[in-house]
Amino acid sequence: MPANLTPQYLSAEKRYREAREDAEKLRYLEEMIRLLPKHKGTDHLFGDLKARRSKLLGRLDQAKKQGKREYAYGVERQGAGQVLLLGVPNSGKSSLLNALSNANSPVGEYPFTTHKPYPGMMPYKDVHVQVVDVAPVVADATEAWVQPLARSADEILIVVDAADPDCLEHVETVLAELDRFKVTPCLYGDPQLRNEPVVPRTTLLVANKCDVHGAADDLAVLRELYADRFPILAVSSTEGAGLHDLVESMYASLRVIRVYTKAPGRPPDTDAPYVLREGATVFDLAEEVHREIAESFKSARMWGTEVHDGQLVGRDHVLADGDVVEIHT
To answer: What total of structural domains would you count in the chain?
Structure first.
């Protein structure tokens, strides 16, 4: 019986043969197993693929015991916060990054297009949020450099293809990898916790490709299963549907505020607000402006929605989004 291998399978097989590193070979092998048509004519090939996977896992485990490490990538943090995109191959992460930001992350019809971090800056009002696309998540074989990025990011977007019948399984795959990374997805994590054994990270579930036929049914199931764990947003990175709501939710979930400063007798500087965590005080702002200003801080006058214009406040006054502050030393 002929195997009737699909073009997608053959593409993954080509990249498997071209791969040099065992971790890379394993990712393509996992994709081949997923894409292999399941019938009697492929039984022998399926067994061969599983044997190759077992051999690769053994080699990777041995390398881990010997202390070998893969090359690590870092991303310099910029903007009001750093948001990481996580998803299985072909979930639409790269196209979502390009739709949200100024990035030009490569987008392909074949899996594993992304081999290194691709950061982009997403505009939000008068600030920017850094959004980072990384290598796809593969069960027990995600690129090693993804883990430190997941642990240090301010927020995580789990991106799934809502039109894929296996999207529920894909969510569980990402959650399992986050558990292996010692990252706990939650509604409001604490990004300042970076060196704990387990770190909580604010997480949103993004159901991409919501414009594709069949996505509505999967989206309903996703909401039924995960709505109590994190927000679920339906978007189309190609058509633009839902992107505005996603941007609003991403920024709100960062739990930051924008604060503007002014010199006495002058208008406020509205071009470059200071971005602080919710709950920050006037003294926190002074420290952000300059250490010497904080050391010589006496008082401040404020303009905002929760104070009278020009109200005199002390160092412990809690700031709100949009406040204008005139620091006196």
So the answer is: 3
- Please check whether residue 88 is in contact with residue 170, taking contact to mean a CB–CB distance below 8 angstroms: yes
Residue, of 225 and 10, whose pLDDT is higher: 225
pLDDT for residue 61:
73
**Spatial distance between the Cα atoms of 113 and 110, rounded to a whole number of angstroms:** 7
Cα gap 14→112, rounded to integer Å: 12
Q: By CB neighbour count within 10 A (0-12 exposed, 13-18 middle, 19+ buried), where does 121 fall?
A: middle
Give me the DSSP letters along 77-129: --BT-EEEEE-STTSSHHHHHHHHSS------SSS----S-EEEEEEETTEEE
Cα four-point dihedral sign 144, 230, 133, 322: negative
What is the residue range of 177's domain?
82-254
Do the Cβ atoms of 232 and 205 come closer than 8 Å?
A: yes
> Can you give the pTM of this predicted structure?
0.75
User: Pick from 82, 251, 232: which is nearest to 151 by CA?
Assistant: 82
**CB contact at 8 A, 201 and 216:** no
Tell me the CA end-to-end span of the chain in Å, nearest whole number: 84
Instruction: Please tell me whether residues 260 and 208 are part of one structural domain.
Output: no
Residue, of 232 and 144, whose pLDDT is higher: 232
The domain boundary, picked from 65, 91, 107, lies at 65
